[in-house]
Amino acid sequence: xxxxxxxxxxxxxxxxxxxxxxxxxxxxxxxxxxxxxxxxxxxxxxxxxxxxxxxxxxxxxxxxxxxxxxxxxxxxxxxxxxxxxxxxxxxxxxxxxxxxxxxxxxxxxxxxxxxxxxxxxxxxxxxxxxxxxxxxxxxxxxxxxxxxxxxxxxxxxxxxxxxx
Length: 164
Known about the structure:
The chain has 164 residues and is of the alpha+beta class. The chain contains five helices and six strands; from the N terminus they run ααβαβαββββα.
């Protein structure tokens, strides 16, 4: 019985990691582009009050050359996003992304119980922010966040997570 619980816990811990599968920014989340200064991966009850099922946050401080690499990957995912329902909040300053929030896509599951069919819809978003480091102006503080939630919208995200 304990072995089953351990196996289930291990499998559940891999879920948030697979959420970024197929994205260009996966390299960033994996630490292949820059050293991770801080990372948070959450699933479960704590996120439900925000309408989320998955949250992965990645933060670091990098020089200009790494900032450009990360911004390029974010732009690639932006260009390949789900455009069926345009949901984007984006600001570009001096030719570079200051912040960007956009919907990546949708995951749908069909549930049939007693002849009745219902659908659950999970929407995925990517959030990116890049600020000049206040202590060392030649460096940039970058935050990258992957979010997934049932029936999540850009308006709900803005309401729950106000930009500073």
